[in-house]
Design goal:
Layout: H1 2-5, E1 17-27, H2 51-67, E2 79-85, H3 88-95, E3 105-109, E4 119-125, E5 130-137, E6 154-161, E7 164-172, H4 180-204, E8 209-215, H5 223-232, E9 234-235, H6 238-241, E10 249-251, E11 254-256, E12 259-264, E13 275-282, E14 303-304, E15 307-308, E16 318-324
Parallel strand pairs: 1-2, 7-8
Antiparallel strand pairs: 1-16, 2-4, 3-4, 5-6, 6-7, 8-12, 9-12, 10-11, 13-16, 14-15
Length: 325
Amino acid sequence: MFKNLYLIPMNNIPTNYTIAFYNIENLFDIENNRSTNDNDFLPTSRNNWTKKRYKNKILKLGDVISKIGNDTSEIAPILVGLAEVENKKALSDLVNSPNLQDENYSYVHYDSPDERGIDVALLYKSDIFKVIHSETFSVYLERENGEQDYTRDVLLVKGELHTEQIHVIVNHWSSRREGIKETEFKRLEAANVVNSIIKSLKNDDPNVKIIVMGDFNDNPNSKSIQLLQDESYLFNPFKTVWSYDNGSSSHNFQWQLFDQILFSTNFFDTSNSGLIFNNAQVFNSKFLTQLNGKYKGQPFRTFVGKKYKGGYSDHFPVFIELKPS
């Protein structure tokens, strides 16, 4: 792995590694995919999702990703989990966009059975992080009539960073659209799937290093997140990041922190770990926010309902920093 690190000029080896997660609000290409419901994101749709609007979003997302954590790290994030991406074409366009084309990002992506065709993915700097294995896990849900309710898969990526193996689990759990209590069982089931993945990893290696990231559609104090912490012994730094005036998205003028990154407690072990947890933040720089009006300070969105605003996303990114020990 030292070989890979020296592909970077010596003065650019980071003092900190940034690990990020970002719900990028419906990154659809403009092509019609007949196997998914992408009808709202076509040039002929009510959203008028034209090539110009698509390219503008790609350009803006690339700008955001390139800047996450840049106050404390000399380079863009090593890993970026993404939610709400349609396909490999959209990912390819993103990593090859002007603000990211020199960052050496590759990606891991699988098409999921989600009815809208939105998936999770992991961007990684291929000159620093070496992917060893990846796979997906389904979350089986049923509607009231007994039919399967298809949702996003959970993505697992095993790789090597700073001479250590780590496992990254990327999530986008079911929304609260039909009510918090009415949909809670869906997110609890997703938590059970993640706990099952972690249990299997720990059976193979009790000291395995794990990072769990995602848009969980639940806050740090929710039952599903608590289930992850309690059963898989994960630490959640975003419990103390979330506050009355700090979150990653806003609903009814209340800050939510659905976007979180949890990790195994061995990232605190200075005696046996080459990577130590240093910091956790919401990346909410001013350029990402509504600058005026009633929604001032909230994420500058691409769409509000069907109305095109031309912004970035309805979520802010979140990130943690790992420091080589």
